[in-house]
Amino acid sequence: MFNSLSDRLSATFKNLRGKGRLTEADVDGTVREIRRALLDADVAVSVAREFAAKVKERALGAEVSEALNPAQQVVKIVNEELQSILGGQTRRLNYAKVGPTIIMLAGLQGAGKTTLAGKLAKSLASEGHTPLLVAADLQRPNAVTQLKVVGERAGVPVYAPHPGVQSDFDELTGDPVVVARNGVSEARQKQHDVVIVDTAGRLGVDAELMKQARDIRDAIRPNEILFVIDAMIGQDAVNTALAFDEGVDFTGVVLSKLDGDARGGAALSVASVTGKPIMFASTGENVNDFEVFHPDRMAGRILD
Ligand code: GDP
């Protein structure tokens, strides 16, 4: 990911090398190239424009450092702006002070929620936490089974709708709000310190899906609502992210499928338009393909 953006930016910066001072025309030309490179990387138009404007303002401003030549100065500004757009500092999970930390996952169908649930659970377990996975995606016939498989691979127990629990025994007609609530109760009873609730996604954003997600949220009051988004969806990322942000007011973003050949624009756009930090990255189908997202490292990688 970001390879072509990275190449384009370094070519742009190369043109500045050896210049003693940057004229306004130099800055204009550079900023135009940066904007084009962002657009070609699928960054949303409004985000690319705003980014370019900020870089221009700072590059023309009075931030002159003795230690850096003009080209290095521009690289530094772009680095800082990239980092800022990607969420600034690495954002850690917000743990509950009392009782289990409740993490709810939201996103479109196929975004990678269920896969992510297993990865996150495994990662937390390896840090000494005792997570419970809750299968509250009752929309997709296979989702509950899939989460059970994922849980097995992660070595983490799964609370799934099962016979004997009223209104929750039939996974296709059961009520996901009830399942989510029961799952959290189970976590409390069995003293799990983290509970990860997988919820249903649809192929597109729709009002019913959003209401269901909101109802689950209101029933379990999560400490974190992670919005999982497929990095490959490119320009659609902005509208999807805004709809989920408005719908459930998520607290953090997880980028999935970063191992693919996504051009990376989704990452920058989503973080920028929602102002929510990217917290984790999913980088493959395997349960271990998971990373904490570090904005500074990602910015560094883009500008490498
Ligand atoms: P959900 O509908 O949001 O729960 O999405 P799933 O977790 O079922 O993922 C949808 C598909 O994407 C599955 O085939 C996953 O194996 C695949 N997938 C999920 N995360 C990743 C990832 O990070 N990289 C790759 N290459 N595939 C992924």
Automatic annotation (TrEMBL):
GO molecular-function terms, A-Z: 7S RNA binding; GTP binding; GTPase activity
Top-level EC class as recorded in UniProt: hydrolase
UniProt-listed Enzyme Commission number(s): 3.6.5.4
GO terms classed as biological process: SRP-dependent cotranslational protein targeting to membrane
Taxon lineage: Bacteria, Bacillati, Actinomycetota, Actinomycetes, Micrococcales
Function: Involved in targeting and insertion of nascent membrane proteins into the cytoplasmic membrane. Binds to the hydrophobic signal sequence of the ribosome-nascent chain (RNC) as it emerges from the ribosomes. The SRP-RNC complex is then targeted to the cytoplasmic membrane where it interacts with the SRP receptor FtsY.
Protein name, as recorded: Signal recognition particle protein
Key words, A-Z: Cytoplasm, GTP-binding, Hydrolase, Nucleotide-binding, Ribonucleoprotein, RNA-binding, Signal recognition particle
Domain characteristics, as noted in the entry: Composed of three domains: the N-terminal N domain, which is responsible for interactions with the ribosome, the central G domain, which binds GTP, and the C-terminal M domain, which binds the RNA and the signal sequence of the RNC.
Subunit structure: Part of the signal recognition particle protein translocation system, which is composed of SRP and FtsY.
UniProt-annotated binding residues for GTP: 107-114, 198-202, 256-259
GO CC terms of this entry: signal recognition particle
Subcellular location, record wording: Cytoplasm
Domain of life of the native organism: Bacteria
Family recorded in the similarity comment: Belongs to the GTP-binding SRP family. SRP54 subfamily.
Residues of the full protein shown: 1 to 304 of 516
Source organism: Galactobacter caseinivorans
Reactions listed under catalytic activity: GTP + H2O = GDP + phosphate + H(+)
Residue ranges occupied by any SRP54-type proteins GTP-binding domain in the UniProt entry: 277-290
